[in-house]
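Tip: read the tokens left to right.
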């Protein structure tokens, strides 16, 4: 989606006038096309000034474009829960069947009921019904009660993972956009940055870590780290960050290359 970043803002010479309002002094130049704007027609986006025409473009209002791209679109969480729901029905029925065995009794019934209720909530999540979100919290609470009855307080340890899963899902920006919920621009910006900000630098760090275990990745970490570092520009629009990750990729990549290079040389000399 995005987009070459726009260079840093240029100052407006004193005495310049707005082309649309020739009596009004120009206060800034549009960050994209450079046309002068006055106070009445400037549009501020993420702290940068644009003219009205440019502000309507998806490469300029990239957060709005990001919102529209994922608005109502089923995300990977939805597929994960949808497919899991089918498997859970079988598990729930199995536990309910076993619950007729006297040893399991009430706790088993509760667990079976919780698993079936989870299937319903998860299927509703896949479908995109908003009540699926609070329903998931309710099911985890039901599961906590079931565990307490069946195992005692130590059984609550089994609730930690589902609770974390639900909490992470409900706070996920893409999952919110799938449900067409309002997401503040600040949150959109963070989600956008995770997906799109300086991907080279992010990959450099990943390869740098991988290169410590498998030397073949290490030189690529150095290369991508250098590319990522050269791209870093906090004054561009949108700003390009991840300087730390680019440097970490270079350092780890260099260490990995050195360590595995020494190792390979030693093996070679040893074999002669
Ligand atoms: Zn413009
Ligand atoms: Zn104007």
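Filled-in amino acids:
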């Amino acid at each position: 989606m995005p987009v070459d970043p726009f260079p840093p803002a240029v100052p407006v010479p004193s005495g310049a006038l707005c082309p649309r309002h020739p009596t009004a002094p120009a206060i800034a130049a549009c960050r994209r096309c450079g046309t002068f704007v006055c106070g009445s027609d400037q549009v501020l986006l993420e702290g940068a000034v644009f003219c009205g025409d440019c502000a309507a473009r998806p490469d300029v209002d990239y957060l709005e474009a990001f919102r529209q791209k994922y608005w109502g679109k089923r995300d990977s969480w939805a597929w994960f829960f949808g497919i899991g729901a089918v498997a859970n029905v079988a598990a729930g029925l199995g536990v309910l069947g076993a619950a007729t065995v006297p040893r399991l009794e009430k706790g088993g019934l509760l667990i079976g009921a919780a698993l079936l209720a989870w299937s319903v909530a998860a299927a509703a999540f896949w479908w995109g019904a908003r009540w699926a979100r609070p329903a998931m919290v309710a099911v985890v609470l039901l599961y906590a009660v079931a565990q307490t009855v069946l195992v005692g307080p130590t059984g609550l340890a089994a609730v930690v993972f589902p609770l974390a899963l639900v909490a992470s899902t409900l706070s996920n920006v893409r999952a919110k956009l799938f449900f067409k919920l309002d997401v503040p621009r600040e949150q959109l910006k963070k989600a956008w940055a995770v997906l799109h900000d300086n991907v080279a630098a992010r990959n450099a760090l990943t390869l740098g870590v991988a290169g410590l275990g498998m030397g073949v990745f290490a030189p690529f970490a150095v290369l991508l780290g250098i590319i990522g570092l050269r791209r870093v520009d906090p004054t561009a629009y949108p700003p390009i960050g991840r300087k730390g990750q680019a440097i970490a990729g270079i350092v780890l990549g260099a260490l990995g290359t050195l360590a595995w290079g020494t190792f390979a040389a030693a093996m070679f000399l040893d074999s002669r």
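The mean pLDDT is 90. Residues 30, 32-33, 35, 50-51, 53-54 surround zinc ion (ligand 1) (CB under 6 Å).
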